[in-house]
Amino acid sequence: ACDLRVASTWFKITTAFAKVGYSGDYGGTYFLTQIVGSAKARELYLTSPVLSAQEALALGIVTRVVPDAEIDAAAKELAMSLAQGPTVTLGYIKRNINNAENLSLEACFDAEALHHSRCSDTADHKEAARAFVEKRTPTFKGH
């Protein structure tokens, strides 16, 4: 249910439900199907293999694998990069992606156009445009 998932090299994951006589819970079948597709989700739930971090990365279950000792720092660095980014824009990007999972192409185009327009009015967009011209890293304020 996370947008981005960082795992350490020791990471292992399995569905395991079939092995203990359960069908799954907390939306796991929904989210895994969204991530890996129906056929692979069926395989993972019905056969319950234990996946390594690299196997999970290859399937898109995790988005980054880092050495064990770096997991906390890597997760914090990723979180901070998002928190210090253009947060209004990031919110609209998430909406666009969520829309792409559920709406028609036409509805997605309409929403994208609205979101794009709203982002163009933000101070963060104006700062990013200035920073681009000035060849520097933008400093976002979240508005």
How would you explain this protein's 3D organization?
This protein is mainly alpha-helical. The chain is built from seven helices and four strands. It has helices at 28-36, 38-47, 53-59, 71-83, 87-102, 105-120, 123-133, and strands spanning 6-8, 12-13, 51-52, 64-66. The strands form two sheets. It has a two-stranded parallel sheet with strand order 1-4. Strands 2-3 form a two-stranded antiparallel sheet. The longest helix is centred in the middle third of the chain and has 16 residues, at 87-102. The radius of gyration is 19 Å and the shape is flat. 11% of the residues are buried.
Defining traits:
single chain, mainly alpha, two-stranded antiparallel ribbon, 7 helices
Brief description of this entry?
The chain has 143 residues and is mainly alpha-helical. The chain contains seven helices and four strands; from the N terminus they run E-E-H-H-E-H-E-H-H-H-H.
Number of helices: 7
Mean pLDDT: 95
Q: Which strand order do you get reading across the main beta sheet? A: 1-4
- Between the first and last Cα atoms, what is the distance in angstroms? 26 Å
- Structural class of the secondary structure composition? mainly alpha
- What percent of the residues sit in helical stretches (DSSP H or I)? 55-70%
